[in-house]
Automatic annotation (TrEMBL):
The active site is at residue 149. It catalyses: a ribonucleoside 5'-diphosphate + ATP = a ribonucleoside 5'-triphosphate + ADP; a 2'-deoxyribonucleoside 5'-diphosphate + ATP = a 2'-deoxyribonucleoside 5'-triphosphate + ADP. It comes from Gallus gallus (Chicken). Belongs to the NDK family. This is Nucleoside diphosphate kinase. The keyword Kinase applies. Its cofactor is Mg(2+). Residues 35-172 form the Nucleoside diphosphate kinase-like domain. ATP binds at residues 43, 91, 119, 125, 136, 146. Its EC number is 2.7.4.6. GO terms for biological process: CTP biosynthetic process; DNA repair; dTTP biosynthetic process; GTP biosynthetic process; mitochondrial outer membrane fusion; protein hexamerization; UTP biosynthetic process. One of its GO terms (cellular component) is mitochondrial outer membrane.
Length: 183
């Protein structure tokens, strides 16, 4: 009987840990006001062209909150996983090679409807179809060197954020300007 009692205790302990983890996640999200987050990456051409400050400035001026930022040389493994949905496309190999050719600035931005609004700020994948005032409309000429990546859906954003950032790399902080941005 003691073996059964021990497994019951283990199962109960596991259940308590699970409940606490869920509670901590909900508490963290509520405390940090996590309505929506998106993943943005400044590609190697954007870094080499010294556009990092300008791009960060545009997101800050819009009113979004930066909660994660790092400069890194992305590995081929990370990039292959990031672009896995494009693996059957003829440009996939070139894309992975290009993205691993230099440093990338990976960021997580937070705010109301941030995924959709960030995509509007970025512009179309093809810079020739991007409106002036968008990042690609202002700084890009060719599809193959289009400066920036932004998540295309909330689901993609969650996947990409977890791929590029560990939870402890995302900072929860109080932005004093939020009361001037949100009702």
């Amino acid at each position: 009987m003691s073996g059964g009692s021990g497994s019951f205790k283990s199962a109960a302990a596991a259940m308590i840990c699970l409940v606490l983890a869920v509670f901590a996640s909900v508490f963290h999200s509520a405390r940090c006001g996590v309505a929506e987050r998106t993943f943005i990456a400044i590609k190697p051409d954007g870094v080499q062209r010294h556009l990092v400050g300008e791009i960060v400035r545009r997101f800050e001026r819009k009113g979004f909150k930066l909660v994660g930022l790092k400069l890194l040389q992305a590995s081929e493994e990370l990039l292959k996983e990031h672009y896995i949905a494009l693996q059957d496309r003829p440009f996939y190999g070139r894309l992975v090679k290009y993205m691993s050719s230099g440093p990338v600035v990976a960021m997580v931005w937070q705010g109301l409807d941030v995924v959709r609004m960030a995509r509007a700020m970025i512009g179309e994948t093809n810079p020739a179809e991007s409106r002036p005032g968008t990042i690609r409309g202002d700084f890009c000429i060719e599809v193959g060197k289009n400066v920036i990546h932004g998540s295309d859906s909330v689901e993609s954003a969650q996947k990409e954020i977890s791929l590029w950032f560990r939870p402890e790399e995302l900072t929860c902080w109080e932005d004093a300007s939020e009361r001037w941005i949100y009702e």
